[in-house]
Amino acid sequence: MLSVVCCLLLLSIAIYQGFHLKRSALRLPEASGKRLQTRGSDFSILHVGESPVAGVADIRQGLTHQVIRKLTQDRGVEFDWEILAKNGARVSRVVYFI
């Protein structure tokens, strides 16, 4: 019985901290820069997501560009790419991107 009470107490503290963090977290602006590159390459990448994909400050430092850079170095091929992302996006809203 004591362990159930302790679990409920810890759960309520965790929920409170989660709501507080969501209200007080710093929201950084999305990265600027182009989100589409087409050159008629044989390969293309569509990257759909939220903040890790949308990036902060400079989009060239974001996840998509890092993946493309690494694939280009390793495979020696060029890629067409497009980024569809928004900070704070939810899975249920991703449909609106596409």
Quick structural overview:
With about 100 residues, this protein is an alpha+beta fold. It is about 45% helix and about 15% strand.
Residues in β-strands, percent: 15-25%
Provide the gyration radius in Å.
Answer: 20 Å
Physical arrangement of strands within the biggest beta sheet: 1-3-2
**What's the average pLDDT?**
83
Any overview of this molecule?
This protein has 98 residues and is of the alpha+beta class. The chain has helices spanning 2-24, 51-54, 63-75, 94-97, and strands spanning 36-37, 43-49, 79-85. Strands 1-3-2 form a 3-stranded mixed beta sheet. The longest helix has 23 residues, at 2-24. The mean pLDDT is 83.
Give short descriptive properties of this protein.
alpha+beta, 3 strands, 98 residues, 45% helix
Outline the secondary-structure elements.
Layout: H1 2-24, E1 36-37, E2 43-49, H2 51-54, H3 63-75, E3 79-85, H4 94-97
Parallel strand pairs: 2-3
Antiparallel strand pairs: 1-3
